Amino acid sequence: MRKQIVAANWKMNGTLEQANSLLDAFAAAPLTVNENKIAVFAVPAPYLMLAKEKLSGNPYLQAAAQNCYSKKSGAYTGEISVEILRSIGISYVVLGHSERREYFAESNAFLAEKVNIALAYNITPIFCCGEPLAIREAETQNAYVATQLEESLFHLSAEEVAKIVIAYEPIWAIGTGKTASSAQAQEMHASIREVLAAKYGAAVAAGISILYGGSVKASNAVEIFGQPDVDGGLVGGASLIVDEFIQIINA
Ligand code: PEP
Predict the structure, then answer these.
(1) How far does residue 214's CA lie from ligand 1's centre (Å)?
(2) Which of 192, 237, 244, 243 lies closest to 221 in space, CA to CA?
(3) pLDDT tens, residue by residue, 199-238
(4) Residue 234, ligand 1, Cβ within 6 A
(5) CATH classification for the domain delimited by 4-250, as one of 3.40.50.1370, 3.50.50.60, 3.30.420.40, 3.20.20.70
(6) Cα–Cα distance measured from residue 206 to residue 202, given in angstroms and rounded to the nearest whole number
């Protein structure tokens, strides 16, 4: 049975004071998490150890990094390695978020290197994919996303790819308040699973969690997460609002 995951992406938001109060609130909240339903908090890097500590009372609440570099260590000022993340007990890293692809020119090939090193250190990549508006308008989104998967993941063995979490995030729905309909989300998630099945077989594809991201809110989470191929969400804005995010996790 594949895991259901709700992942918060705080992006570059929150002071230490705000991070403390958000983490305290989530740690104390009545959350319906268990070994198959987990919540992950991708916090800004300076708060990773704080998040680890604050969430330590519940094994189903995990801290995650928002990014990592493709090298183990060395002269890469300002970057964060998986060796560092592993040494502080981090088990998840978001890779290939559309903001990293757009503002930091991260290519599919570069992301393949990051995926490799994360897996080598036993850190689960939450691998983001998704199309810009022009691609959706041209109705070529399925092929676009398939290419992202092929170029960043398809060098992996079946055993390795089974350890990845995929987050489908249509770029036109991120932070815009415009959500993909539940039918659009399901259609793309099914297509991603088909692409994975064609390469790795149906059993492997059926075991991979595919999250939806793009303006998920308490008011639309139940419907989106209720789709058969949607296994949870990657949530930006609403993950910074305690009551909203509690409802999203419990959805
Ligand atoms: C995101 O940052 O990954 C995201 C989906 O943001 P939002 O929920 O704000 O659209």
Answers:
(1) 5
(2) 244
(3) 999 999 999 999 999 999 999 999 999 999 999 999 999 9
(4) yes
(5) 3.20.20.70
(6) 6
